[in-house]
Write a structure and sequence with these properties.
Largest sheet: 9 strands, mixed
Bound molecules: 4'-deoxy-4'-aminopyridoxal-5'-phosphate
Number of domains: 2
CATH superfamily of the largest domain: D-amino Acid Aminotransferase, subunit A, domain 2
Number of strands: 17
Number of helices: 8
Protein name: Branched-chain-amino-acid aminotransferase
Shape: globular
Cofactor: pyridoxal 5'-phosphate
Radius of gyration: 19 Å
CATH topology of the largest domain: D-amino Acid Aminotransferase, Chain A, domain 2
Keywords: Amino-acid biosynthesis, Aminotransferase, Branched-chain amino acid biosynthesis, Pyridoxal phosphate, Transferase
GO molecular function: branched-chain-amino-acid transaminase activity
Strand content: 25-35%
GO cellular component, one term: cytosol
Distance between the termini: 24 Å
Order of helices and strands: EEHEEEHHEEHEHEEEEHEHEEEHE
Length: 304
């Protein structure tokens, strides 16, 4: 990943990809106190466009606010940088990764002289969970790791350190031969995937866990809006693990994962054991929306 051509924005400068480095005493590397985003740009008939750029940048600043981390740039500047990183790297479609982290100015939890550094990189990234899985669905296991408790870490923040929990769950799932983990909250209710929000469908109605310890996903919000626009009812509520087992359909949403069908959970088929019709409808609507083939929500697309 580090050994390639391209340019990365770091603290206001455009740095050759291979030289975009930080010191081994970088504070965030040691303690995980940092914030980041995952954003996608898609090829559209009018040129490459970033999907819900302003919403992602707002969440980045909210995450930093939650952590008490002052970002030394404003949102408009970082929006411009994200457009430019796609342009400068000559990408038609892209995954964009902004991150704000504490530097190597001090060490220890009590360091009080830390600077906040910002980077933005972009590269081309296809289907996060694989093209075939987008058609046929993925196999998921309920994790032995619970999702964070709301008073143990700040779940509204997309914070680096929160991903230790995601990584433990994902590694366990992959080791056991599954494609992704489904994490329950500390009370045992279904919460989210390691990097995705989760939805189920039953009798034509869509359900998703209400946001307690799950990230307030931008794809989740998009899918809720799209569902309602085509007349489907969406209910946010507590969901139990066995409700997922007996759902007609289930799917994950995320910027990287887009809309990924779930065909199996803990060895039980979900519905017909393949991508369900409502999932398929929402998945294609999502792709129409992000690639500018829908007339609704032009404000969600920012041309680079
Ligand atoms: N939950 C977690 C833990 C995530 O990492 C992500 C990916 N950012 C999501 C949900 C989905 O969020 P979004 O749709 O904004 O990418």
């Amino acid at each position: 990943m580090a050994d390639r051509d391209g340019l990365i924005w770091l603290d206001g400068d455009w740095v050759p990809w291979r030289e975009a480095k930080t010191h081994v005493l970088t504070h965030t590397l040691h303690y995980g106190m940092g914030v980041f985003e995952g954003v996608r740009a898609y090829s559209t008939a009018r040129g490459t466009a970033i999907f819900r750029l302003q919403d992602h940048t707002r969440r980045l600043f909210n995450s930093a606010h939650i952590l008490g981390m002052p970002i030394p740039w404003d949102q408009d500047t970082l929006n411009e940088v994200q457009r430019e990183v796609v342009r400068r790297n000559g990408l038609d479609s892209a995954y964009i990764r902004p991150m704000c982290f504490y530097g190597a100015e001090g060490m220890g939890l009590r360091a009080d002289n830390l600077r906040v550094h910002c980077m933005v990189a972009a590269w081309s990234w296809g289907a996060y969970l694989g093209e075939e899985n987008m058609r046929n669905g993925i196999r998921v296991r309920v994790s032995s790791f619970a999702r964070h408790h709301v008073n143990i870490t700040m779940c509204r923040a997309k914070a680096n350190g929160n991903y230790l929990n995601s990584m433990l769950a994902l590694q366990e799932a992959l080791r056991d031969g599954y494609d992704e983990a489904l994490l329950l909250d500390t009370e045992g209710y279904v919460m989210e995937g390691s990097g995705e929000n989760v939805f189920i469908v039953r009798d034509g109605v869509i359900y998703t866990p209400d946001l307690t310890s799950a990230l307030d996903g931008i794809t989740r919000r998009t899918v809720i809006a799209l569902s309602e626009e085509i007349g489907l009812k969406v209910i946010e509520k507590r969901i139990t693990r066995d409700e997922v087992y007996i759902a007609d359909e289930a799917f994950f949403t995320g910027t990287a994962a887009e809309v990924t069908p779930i065909r199996e959970v803990d060895g039980r088929w979900i519905g017909a054991g393949t991508r369900g019709p409502i999932t398929e409808r929402l998945q294609s609507l999502y792709f129409e929306q992000v690639s500018g083939r829908r007339s609704e929500h032009p404000e969600w697309l920012t041309l680079i």
